[in-house]
Design brief:
This protein is of the alpha/beta class. The chain has helices spanning 11-22, 55-61, 82-102, 139-156, 177-185, 204-217, 233-244, 254-271, 279-286, 295-300, 308-317; strands at 2-6, 26-31, 46-49, 67-70, 107-111, 124-125, 161-166, 168-170, 191-192, 198-203, 223-226, 229-232, 250-251, 291-292. It has a seven-stranded parallel β-sheet with strand order 3-2-1-4-5-7-11, sandwiched between helices. The chain has a three-stranded mixed β-sheet with strand order 8-10-12. The chain has a two-stranded parallel ribbon with strand order 6-14. Residues 3-226 form the NAD-dependent epimerase/dehydratase domain.
């Protein structure tokens, strides 16, 4: 297989490139000229350069490609450049879809998010769930929802594209929660917020496995939730504590966190700084709860991920 991976230098994209090469596939890494390529430095990939919204560059890079994996995205909560996020997540996805169809690509896998389902208010849902939330919790949720609509429209028009909806992606090199884990391992994480927040978890390599299975076994237009299971933040830190002997961080009272988020948010906007707490992050900690079931992927794709405990153990043993 000759595959093109958008966002190849990112967390998920780089793991995907590695797995494709191990299978003997030819891999084209579509990246920007300014991209940090450190995650790809030891991988025998062919580079194609361009912006994710540049349909001409995308189409040129896709010549002779069988499968496109679209993992590129602007992922961030808190204070973000909403216009840039829309350009990357929505405009970029539309450009990738158009280029893939114009280049005669036979299959595409789109890396979406469980966020497209909106706040389920703690209800456990599957792929049949119809989004009920009015509005969006973040610019990220909104742009990924709009991008998903574009993907679904392409599938309805006859293009073979499949969507995977991962929950929280964990694993070596995680640029988000991985930093928190490293601070914890150094004994520097003494307090934390949102201990009761429920988080869906999937190992990045299990997500990659699901994407490869989706290429081989899925029908066009299918959606697959990809999540091993879920834990509260308190339970996650307890697993880390059991593995390392380091004490679980102390929970900061919710009222203090809410006040801090309300104070830091405008300061961050004024200074162009991403504070550790903002109104949006507080909303995700206490007010929004998305719970999902990945039974469809397990049954239809024969997806068999490692356990949650193994996933978290990998973070403290890397």
């Amino acid at each position: 297989m000759k595959a093109l991976v958008t966002g190849a230098n990112g967390f998920t994209g780089s793991h995907l490139c590695q797995y494709l090469l191990q299978r003997g596939d030819q891999v084209i890494a579509y990246v920007r000229q300014t991209s940090d390529l450190s995650r790809l430095k030891e991988l025998d990939v062919e580079f194609a350069y361009g912006e994710i919204t540049d349909q001409a560059s995308l189409e040129s890079a896709m010549q002779g490609v069988n499968t496109v994996f679209h993992t590129a995205a602007y992922v961030e909560l808190g204070l973000v450049d909403a216009a840039l996020m829309e350009r990357v997540n929505v405009g970029g996805t539309k450009a990738v879809l158009s280029a893939a169809q114009a280049a005669g690509v036979s299959r595409m896998v789109y890396c979406s998010t469980i966020g497209v389902y909106g706040d389920t208010q703690g209800k456990l849902i599957d792929e049949t769930f119809a989004r009920q939330q009015a509005g969006f919790s973040s610019a990220y949720d909104r742009t990924k929802y709009l991008a998903q609509q574009a993907v679904d429209a392409a599938a309805q028009s006859g293009f073979h594209v499949v969507s995977v909806m991962p929950s929280g992606i964990f694993g070596p090199g995680d640029p988000h929660f991985g930093k928190v884990v490293q601070l914890f391992l150094k004994g520097g994480l003494k307090v934390w917020a949102g201990a009761d927040r429920v988080t869906g978890i999937v190992h990045v390599d299990d997500l990659v496995d699901a994407m490869l299975l989706a290429v081989e076994r899925s029908q066009p237009g299918e959606h697959y939730i990809i999540s091993t299971g879920e834990l509260t933040t308190q339970e996650m830190f307890q697993v880390f504590s059991n593995e390392t002997g380091i004490a679980v961080p102390t929970e900061i009272p919710e009222p203090i966190v809410r006040v801090a988020g309300g104070i830091l948010d405008p300061i961050g906007r004024l200074l162009g700084w991403q504070p550790p707490l903002s109104r949006e992050r507080v909303h995700y900690l206490y007010d929004r709860c998305v719970r999902v079931s990945a039974d469809k992927a397990r049954k239809q794709l024969d997806w068999n991920p490692r356990s949650i405990q193994e996933t978290l153990r990998d973070l403290v043993q890397q």
